Amino acid sequence: MEECSEFSPLESQLAAQIRARLGELRGTESRVAQVVLDRGTDLVHLSVSDVAALAGTAPSSVVRACQRLGFRGYQELKIAAARHAPRPAPGPADDRDPAARALADSLRAAREALDGMTATLTPADLRAAAGLLDGADQVLLAGTGLSGAVVLDLAYRLRALGLLVDAPADPLTAQLAAAQLPPTGVCLAVSHTGATPTVVDTARRARAAGAAVLAVTSYARSPLTEIATHTLVAGGQDLVFGLETTASRLAHLAAVDALAATLLALRGPRAEQALRLSADVTADQMY
């Protein structure tokens, strides 16, 4: 397979590390390694399921191939690729001021993430998700790491609209709660990559219990979306400087904000009554 010229190649040492192990790989693992070489630094924009589709295999095979290549998993390989991804040329001021460069890059990533939502999130998606939550007897929220902040924000919003919400901080408690959901319950899982094991496992247990699963994620194709009954896709560039940025979290917050507003309109007087209680609580905490 020839390398695709439309993608920037991996940094030479990383590419050499992968090529050196090609002879040890067979079948699907070899195809995964070739996809990694062909896609180069474009890997930072691909989920594990995207790579699996390109290689004609399963996400689990992608993870195993990455481990055979010397990485702990696909995410570590993406981080290695991102460290050497091409960056925009600095402006005359940015090249002398790291803070100016960081501010410009962060604002650019945030704008791109929010603007990109118009291509991945539709009013129909929001209406379907709001209808699902409106009919739920119980809503379980799941998310860890930086996605946990989105979960906390959404938990408050949904409670303020009168929904019965559970948002366990402990992942084992979340999985137990998922296994106990009734068929009329909903598990709302937030994961940037859609491949966070504890979140995916929580969603899987909810589905096994007969509950619906609503995913908020940055990738349309991932282990989480394969489980989900409904998906809201919103997110930005995956990695910058080898670290996850907050751009995708801003997009996720905007998505759940729109979801809450849609739910408010759908629930009408029921939500307005609950909001009055929320306003009373808030007023009591002001001096």
UniProtKB/TrEMBL annotation:
Keywords: DNA-binding, Transcription, Transcription regulation. Residues 129-269 form the SIS domain. The keyword Transcription regulation applies. The keyword Cytoplasm does not apply. Residues 12-88 form the HTH rpiR-type domain. Pfam families: HTH_6, SIS. One of its GO terms (biological process) is carbohydrate derivative metabolic process. PROSITE patterns: HTH_RPIR (PS51071), SIS (PS51464). Gene3D superfamilies: Glucose-6-phosphate isomerase like protein, domain 1, Winged helix-like DNA-binding domain superfamily/Winged helix DNA-binding domain. This is MurR/RpiR family transcriptional regulator.
